[in-house]
Design goal:
It is built from 4 helices and 13 strands. The chain has 189 residues and is an alpha+beta fold.
Length: 189
Amino acid sequence: MNRLFRAAVQIALAVSLMLFSVSCGEKATDRYAHIRAFLQFRPVSASGPLLSAVTNPGMFCTIRIGTTHFLFTGPTGSSSSWPITDVVRNYGQPECVAGFVVGIASTPDMNGQMPIIAYDLACPNCYAGDAMITKELTLSGEKLTCSRCHRVYDLQSDGIVVSGDAGQPLLRYRSVAYNQSNDLLVIMN
């Protein structure tokens, strides 16, 4: 009995060491960005491209933040703008690298849900690799393309690179909520 117990302990230790060595040897990747981001926008219904993106699977909208206006552009090129008010400047200044792309993927996530997702509009590989260059991406359907490095990112697959050189996925933001009754979109990280 004593021999059997020792053998079981040795096997358990060996398995534990193997698992430990694998977990320490590989770099873990987190699906969310580790940079600060914030956007609070109301009224969502004032922008056709944005409203379409937060209410329809398969639709996305870019949000560019200028000095005086927000610019919302849908995948077909339709766009609208909204002034940045003093309230936004003083109490809710947007934060991001280059803007946002917001929408609902056309396929459910692993939990069978269809959540609203948001990514930064900067190419993560150009931004991380070349002294913080913030090259904006171009939206086409459910894909974003970088004109500098020519990578194509898939918005419905966690922003992974699907064409071009391998690289980091898009900078995805952790918390995205659209409250239809308040006509309010909030993105936070």
